[in-house]
Amino acid sequence: MGTIEHDQGEAQYSIKKEALPPIETVYNPHSLEYCEDPVPQWHELVKRGPLVWYPLWQAWIMTGIKDIMDCWRTEYLSSDFYDWEYAPPRPPESEWTNFERALIGHSLVADKDHHRLVRKVSSPAFSRNVVEAISMRIEPDIKALFDELGTPDSFDYIEKVAAHIPFISITRIVGIPEKYWDDFKPVVTSFTEAWNPTISEERRQKAREDSNRAIDIIQEVIAERRLMPRQDDFLSALIQVEKENEQFREWDIITMVLALIGAGADTTLIAQQWSVYSLLKNRDQIAEALESPEAFGKAFTEMMRWSANSKMGFARYAPEDMELLGQKVRKGQMVLLMPHLKDYDPQYYTEPEKFNMNRSHDKDVLFGYGPRFCIGAALAKRQLFLSLSELFARFPDAELAYEPERDETDHNSIAFKQLVIKTNIQK
Ligand code: HEM
């Protein structure tokens, strides 16, 4: 195991680095080897110091959790995709389509001050009461999915359950009525690709076109909602925030809705797979983990730690030429924050390979930290709690039919090709 001694002087890092093979020969998140067991490759990264240049992605990788938390908290790096050296040029305002208006004009991602204002004024829309009310709306959808499934001897959890939950719950959470779902689904699923730095410009362009269509639909839904009484969803809550705050306009609502969809869909799909897998592999902890939403919240961080499924981390961009953690970073270069690198480090976790839902996670940064802490954390946990509770209530003796094959194609996380569950029900 490589040491993480971030307090050491740069000189000691250089001595170690010289003896090590180039990082691209020992670290490749696109490889099947990584998907089978990423931990040795994480150790290789950490061994090379606090900021490692990774030529395959033309990006720096920040490896130390204290440094990452400092970056999260103080935001000295930019979150704006258009600050990336390889991003397309930022178009002038006269050429903006709705997509640019949502993502440049009133962006959650771009302007730091506006971002803080949006988070502050919109916080009532994400209060405990709203989250509770929204959770109640997701529950019948989850039950309906299991009703439709029936009582088979075995089934693929991803195909039958996990794949449907993110879209259903995000549209319910936001408040997009069912009559729009057929039009909305094909154009929102590629939304996160619109600013993904690791895919082709052609694919990003297609995602931008889809996003423009999605924005048209969101505008239609907002106009309709303005004429209706208040409902239990984010759209109604955000329209209320707009009424009470002059600086919060319709474009802020649109941006927020897009951000919720973008940040809440892929993440929960991956989390569904790995939380079910973790509990099936650690059956002795199922009952305790599902005892209450609070118990699940704690267990969930351990599920995500133990399952080691991260690949890319979180992208930031250097706003200017800078000296950072002993390296010269050029304006526009990408810096990837990888908090998951601590997850199998014995400095932070004793016996990291053991799943123990009662571990303490100090600090728990699964949902980020500081001004950009995840807006959907409570909802994500509740949605997963409801799905897993339903799964084990209906199939208390469920087990893995066989060890699932890993899918190396997802750019952001390690996923499974299938997750086949044997129900073991007595018929
Ligand atoms: C297991 C599921 C999830 C995980 C692990 C997760 C994790 C995170 C993390 C680490 C960040 C910070 C990213 C950064 O610093 O660049 C974040 C941001 C965010 N998340 Fe989540 N998230 C999850 C689910 C959700 C859901 C369901 C929603 C929406 C309902 C959501 C909405 C957001 C939004 C809007 C942001 C951006 C916040 C901002 O920039 O102010 N997330 N999430």
Automatic annotation (TrEMBL):
InterPro entries: Cyt_P450, Cyt_P450_B, Cyt_P450_CS, Cyt_P450_sf. Pfam families: p450 (PF00067). Its cofactor is heme. Keywords: Heme, Iron, Metal-binding, Monooxygenase, Oxidoreductase. Belongs to the cytochrome P450 family. SUPFAM superfamilies: Cytochrome P450. GO terms for molecular function: heme binding; iron ion binding; monooxygenase activity; oxidoreductase activity, acting on paired donors, with incorporation or reduction of molecular oxygen. It comes from the Bacteria. This is Cytochrome P450.
